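Box 3.1 A note on notation
Throughout this textbook, protein chains are presented in two layers. The first layer is the amino acid sequence; the second is a token string describing backbone geometry. Keep the layers aligned when reading.
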Amino acid sequence: MQYIILIGDELLTINSLKSIDHYGSTRSHTNDDGRHWVIFDDEYVYYDFESEMSNGYYTKKELRKILSEIPFAKPRTVTMGYNSRERMMQVLKQDNFLRAIYVDDDAWNILPIEEFIECLDAMAAAGILDDFPPIRRLL
């Protein structure tokens, strides 16, 4: 299982992600622990809601660095897990997916979603998507 971290403002919530029509999905459900699953036959993505960035995932030093790179005063994070990079890319590229967010690829590359998608596309075109992460070397 792999994951990325979505970073946004107060509009980034589990409900905002649940309301997205995930094209091609066969079903979705939310566990008792709040993890929301979207199933695509044998592939999936899931979302785990975290209310604030100071949830213990980042050290204080890392958090200061991240906060200097993003435009949100009180950022929120959602972990997006997946079992297929291609499916994750398809979901992020959907015309109805959130746009005013940043993505942390879990290798300390934090980019606006549009740049993140461009980097993934470049990696796929170069045949090196299996190297994801890191993506910074393509910028």
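The domain at 2-138 is CATH 3.30.310 (TATA-Binding Protein). The first strand starts at residue 2 and ends at 8.
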